[in-house]
Amino acid sequence: MEFGVVFFPTVGPGDKPAPQYFDECLHLAELAEDLGFRHVKTVEHYFFPYGGYSPDPVTFLAAVAARTSRIRLGTSAAIPAFTHPVKLAGKLAMLDNLSHGRLDAAFGRAFLPDEFAAFGIPLDESRDRFTEGVTACVRLWSEEDVRFEGRFHQFGPVTLLPRVVQRPHPPVFVTSARSAESVERAGTDGYNLQTVPNVMSREVLQERLSIYRGAWAAAGHPEGAARVHFSYPCVVAEDGAQAVLKGRFDEERNTAAIAAAVRAWSGTTSAAYPGYEKLADLTTRTTFDDRLKDDKVLVGDPEQVRGQLERIAGWYGDDVTISLGIHSGHLDVQDAARTLRLLADRVLPKLHA
């Protein structure tokens, strides 16, 4: 297993000023590199406390690149539907150069109706725009004199500058929440996979991984080369009861943030998102205690969290990479720093042993 951190803010101006949140996350990114964590990621969202402090992951990751030298930098995930592919490929290519080849480029479809409405993009076009955008970015990185004729974008011939450092292109990840079709397509296309175990049962996630790995192998991609990233909220403290108290506080506010962001689904339907009209109800069906019992949040003292990670490795394979959500903005930054230090000093060495 490898480990990194993902920043998914769920705060707004009434909770914490944005400059303070960014300063705290940059400090934690530097600490993560010092402690040997492998990556830093952040999301792309708009308007709501649910991710809204991160409308452009490239801007934040460029600041991380300036303060670090080894840790990898991941978009988690950039949204092709909201950006012209020439612009998106160029921004990411600049980040790959600024970081001397440390970019992991993850792409997602997005799923919040209010975001699509603001950009004037129909929800029903999300899958096709996603596929077209990823394809265009990969071609712009890998080829010269690119002529592109898509449903939504036509351009060329153009040669993108700067050229990416990583050849033929940076690692590409596809973000999937529920769709078996999406994970199968990712495996067939040879893209890496990232997902959030919290949104599905263990059995469903195991099935999705089987589909993905089977499609990867059937397409003839190199054995063992597929990379799978999972994201988990994480709070570790010397006192397990104190960790649970803080973890519960944080998760309840995260749940409230997503519930507000998905409220529009109660009056929205889309063939591209079957069942999402029930999403507003689903966010309240499980409690923090349910998620803790099912190892969907990593919360406790070092030994308890090590046990959780061992179970996760047993369920999904010890080759998965874990992205730790350590700082949504509701807890003190020192709580996040303590989590990182305890993981580095007392959890991961025993886990690896």
From TrEMBL:
Transmembrane segments: none annotated. Pfam families: Bac_luciferase (PF00296). Keywords: Monooxygenase, Oxidoreductase. InterPro entries: Bact_Lucif_Oxidored, Luciferase-like_dom, Luciferase-like_sf. One of its GO terms (molecular function) is oxidoreductase activity, acting on paired donors, with incorporation or reduction of molecular oxygen. GO terms for cellular component: cytosol. It comes from the Bacteria. Residues 1-315 form the Luciferase-like domain. This is Alkanesulfonate monooxygenase SsuD/methylene tetrahydromethanopterin reductase-like flavin-dependent oxidoreductase (Luciferase family). The lineage of its organism: Bacteria, Bacillati, Actinomycetota, Actinomycetes, Streptosporangiales.
